[in-house]
């Protein structure tokens, strides 16, 4: 199941990159804290690893496996966005820790598994929680993962799309296994990030 | 910067027995070269003013009544001012950002090591809450099992977790914040490596926070 087990080729250890400011450095180089929420087993870490692996870029830094890493994404308009990606534990008993993670986050990805209605319920719970307690201008994405398993689908795209629209999120179905829509997901988040207004 | 192995552990710690007094009081788990460079430059005559300010700060600080909130702000402000001054004056003027950063690290380490006894456990409330936490964790230790934390059986490996526990225990041997942080990071790396191996063995997905966080909590409690 899921994604393959190889690791990103380029990674740098060390302490220098632990930093969770939500602020951009300048108008061309943005920096954002991104948090992943969702039931355990929906493929949160696979999505991140797939994204990082797809970048072929020496700036990706794995600090603690897939639990915390950073990756810079270059956009077509020559802006760069440095994502600091925090994975969370999806088990019920760790739900109380989530606020520690999404505090100060500029973007959140709420993940469910398209073959699991249960995980979609859980995703709705996270969306509600973020609406209530997350920062107002947080960019939120609803992501149905494991799209390659469409013959086992139990959550329709239409239902998810409606839920996303209702909550002012964007919606995409991905497959960390085949890499479908993974880059698009992060690019879309990057494009939607608020640009700092120049001082003039 | 050189790309380094993410699983590399930061250099070995010195013997804690030698850490009192003399230069060894600054036993380091991170970048010993940068630390020596910092001391070297501080010995230069052009750094005399810096040395004076640092000693002055430590003196004033030590003579004040402890107040955690204000103390923390005072240290941060001092570090910030000094880092600004480093940038503008010899022996650091014209240094690269990286060199300035390591000078800042050196300064923090020097100041915090000197102030260690004054800033850690310096007010009764802190000591009390430390004791209470210690007591609670000791109670938890007696009955907690990996399954209580939703650690999947294929990832359970108490013997190997001892390695991670050892890394974390080193935290008490260091005084500088960055060195303490390095102990936590090393502990996390050990855990992540173990999880990575286990996921290879069981052909599972690479481990993420679902697997990592429960083990970190378990190791911390133990």
UniProtKB/TrEMBL annotation, chain A:
Key words, A-Z: Nucleotide-binding
SUPFAM superfamilies associated with the record: P-loop containing nucleoside triphosphate hydrolases
Pfam name, any one: Ras
Domain of life: Eukaryota
Keyword Nucleotide-binding: yes
InterPro entries, sorted: P-loop_NTPase (IPR027417), Small_GTP-bd (IPR005225), Small_GTPase (IPR001806)
SMART domains named in the record: ARF, RAB, RAN, RAS, RHO
Any GO molecular function: GTP binding
Ranges for region Disordered: 1-20
Record NCBIfam families: small_GTP
Designated name of the protein: Ras-related protein RABF1
Organism (species): Aegilops tauschii subsp. strangulata
UniProtKB/TrEMBL annotation, chain B:
This protein's GO CC annotations: cytosol; endocytic vesicle
Residue ranges, annotated region (Disordered): 1-28
VPS9 domain sequence ranges: 127-222
GO aspect biological process, one term: vesicle-mediated transport
GO MF entries: guanyl-nucleotide exchange factor activity; small GTPase binding
Domain of life (superkingdom): Eukaryota
Pfam families per record: DUF5601 (PF18151), VPS9 (PF02204)
Protein name (record): VPS9 domain-containing protein
Organism: Aegilops tauschii subsp. strangulata (Goatgrass)
